């Protein structure tokens, strides 16, 4: 299995070669040269597998340069009920991503797929926990080390820290705006006592943190000497790890071969639903892939009109489903590559248009007319929809969902088809978004037992002015490089 760039760069790479990297050398994204195919006999045989062994079966088709025994050990170490322990009472934690039936609506069984039972209560743990183990393994094999630098306003940073804590050969330097995160988020990150995790609380806002990360990364000599890397959402291993739970969700929602299932995905950078697209291209019987956005509706606009129009910072709203507040979708290029029949020249032109003209229109070329062949439909949701949906699910089914999942349920309900199971991906647990839960239900969200009282734990962090040189000095002192 070799990987190529969406923009045509020739020099096929192996999985291990692209594991630690980001963009391809020509600015494109890596994709396998072809998608491995899964037959319906294989799918049926997978019904009896644990999540870890299912992950092995799927991942081994994408990374044939890691010995099978090693890969199986990595998936078994990652996907355990102890790591994914925060499921709702009554859910089967042995499934890792338990499927919960809400009810039948318009003749369609409506389900939640619980992807948020990991250490940070959001679906990013599903991929990031594997990434931590894969990175540690690959760095040890190559005799290298890696210093991950990132900026966070809450969610991504904590998933990275919980994935990399205690990993040999890896340090994490995570910048966050001092006193701007919720008490819960702050406690989640700052209570980590692992010596390889460094929380830097910057006296400024999130944009200051991001500017510092950019400035450090643009100092190429410093970056190389300090072995600085990132773990952003375009990382291929993150995308492929997410493919696994579409298979798991399908297996849990069906009883036999060929049955179709639709998935609804609360979307931001298009990483999650891109994994669904790949599962469908591999032969998983997916009917619809429903893209749900919030008020930041770049993707909904594209799937309705064929026009992709990225937003400016001033047009990007801060919403109550903040992990979907994006102005452009960094993984979208991977899907567009397949939509234009893998024509790298055409793809490169389209994304040059994104940079120079702010977007592109696929109507005149006839490419947009093919969108239904790929199963995609979409919808958008607002704060009012989230609050109403959280209330409705609480009273109708006795289930409390978070704001992102509420966007998903709202949009899923607009695309139900009698007889076809609709699986909404639960991308976070409500404990993380207490303000909106209080607004909707007039009470605090349930908190998994492992999070009781975390605000009272001792915290380990460094407060620093928003100053690039000071941050560089801090990194150099702690890496000793
Ligand atoms: C990151 C995130 C999303 C968006 O996922 P993408 O892969 O960026 O589309 C949705 N919900 C939650 C809770 C998230 O953390």
Write structural notes for this entry.
Belongs to the threonine synthase family. GO terms for molecular function: threonine synthase activity. Its EC number is 4.2.3.1. The modification N6-(pyridoxal phosphate)lysine is found at residue 124. Residues 97-346 form the Tryptophan synthase beta chain-like PALP domain. By secondary structure, the protein is α/β, with parallel strands linked by helices. It folds into 2 domains: 35-122 and 236-436, Rossmann fold, CATH 3.40.50; 145-226 and 453-479, 3-Layer(aba) Sandwich (Rossmann fold), CATH 3.40.50. The protein is built from 18 helices and 15 strands. It has helices spanning 15-19, 40-45, 51-60, 68-78, 124-142, 155-164, 183-190, 206-218, 220-225, 236-253, 271-281, 298-305, 332-339, 344-357, 383-397, 403-412, 434-441, 468-479, and strands at 3-5, 30-32, 99-105, 108-114, 146-151, 170-177, 197-203, 228-229, 261-266, 286-293, 307-309, 359-361, 376-380, 422-426, 462-465. A 6-stranded mixed sheet has the order 3-4-14-9-10-13, sandwiched between helices. It has a 5-stranded parallel sheet with strand order 8-5-6-7-15, with helices on both faces. It has a two-stranded antiparallel sheet with strand order 1-2. Helix 7 links the parallel strand 6 and strand 7. Helix 10 (236-253) crosses helix 11 and helix 15 (383-397) packs across helix 17. The chain is globular. The two termini are 35 Å apart. The structure holds pyridoxal-5'-phosphate.
């Amino acid at each position: 299995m070799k990987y190529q760039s969406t923009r045509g760069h020739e020099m096929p790479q192996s999985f291990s070669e692209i594991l630690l990297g980001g963009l391809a050398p020509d600015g494109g994204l890596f994709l396998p040269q072809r998608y491995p195919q899964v037959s319906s006999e294989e799918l049926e045989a997978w019904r009896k597998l644990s999540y870890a062994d299912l992950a092995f079966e799927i991942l081994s088709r994408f990374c044939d340069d890691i010995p099978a025994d090693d890969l199986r050990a990595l998936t078994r170490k990652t996907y355990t009920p102890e790591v994914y322990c925060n499921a709702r009472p009554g859910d089967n934690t042995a499934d890792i991503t338990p499927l919960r039936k809400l009810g039948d609506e318009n003749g369609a069984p409506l389900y939640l797929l619980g992807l948020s039972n990991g250490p940070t209560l959001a679906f990013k743990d599903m991929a990031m926990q594997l990434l931590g183990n894969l990175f540690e393994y690959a760095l040890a094999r190559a005799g290298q080390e890696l210093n991950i630098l990132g900026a966070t306003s809450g969610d991504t940073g904590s998933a990275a820290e919980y994935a990399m804590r205690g990993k040999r050969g890896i340090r994490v330097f995570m910048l966050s705006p001092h006193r701007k995160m919720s008490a819960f988020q702050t406690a989640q990150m700052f209570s980590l006592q692992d010596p390889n995790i460094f929380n830097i609380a910057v006296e400024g806002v999130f944009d200051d943190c991001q500017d510092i990360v950019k400035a450090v990364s643009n100092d190429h000599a410093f970056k190389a000497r300090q072995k600085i890397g990132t773990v952003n959402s375009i990382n291929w291993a993150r995308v492929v790890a997410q493919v696994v739970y579409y298979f798991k969700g399908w297996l849990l929602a069906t009883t036999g071969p060929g049955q179709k299932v639709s998935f609804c995905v609360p979307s931001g950078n298009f990483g999650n639903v891109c994994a669904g697209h790949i599962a469908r291209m591999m032969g998983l019987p997916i009917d619809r892939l429903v893209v749900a956005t919030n008020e930041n509706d770049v993707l909904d606009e594209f799937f309705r009109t064929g026009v992709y129009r990225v937003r400016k910072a001033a047009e990007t709203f801060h919403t109550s489903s903040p992990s979907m507040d994006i102005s452009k979708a960094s993984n979208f290029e991977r899907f567009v590559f397949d939509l234009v029949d893998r024509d790298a020249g055409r793809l490169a032109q389209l994304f040059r248009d994104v940079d120079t003209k702010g977007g592109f229109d696929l109507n005149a070329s006839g490419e947009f007319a093919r969108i239904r062949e790929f199963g995609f439909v979409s919808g958008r949701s607002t704060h009012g929809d989230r609050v109403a949906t959280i209330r409705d699910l609480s009273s109708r089914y006795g289930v409390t969902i978070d704001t992102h999942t509420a966007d998903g349920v709202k949009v899923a309900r607009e695309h139900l088809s009698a007889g076809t199971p609709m699986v909404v991906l639960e991308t976070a647990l409500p404990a993380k978004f207490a303000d909106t839960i209080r607004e909707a239900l007039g009470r605090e969200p349930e908190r998994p037992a492992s999070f009781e009282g975390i605000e009272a734990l001792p915290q380990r962090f460094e407060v620093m002015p928003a100053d690039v040189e000071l941050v560089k000095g801090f990194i150099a002192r702690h890496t000793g490089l």
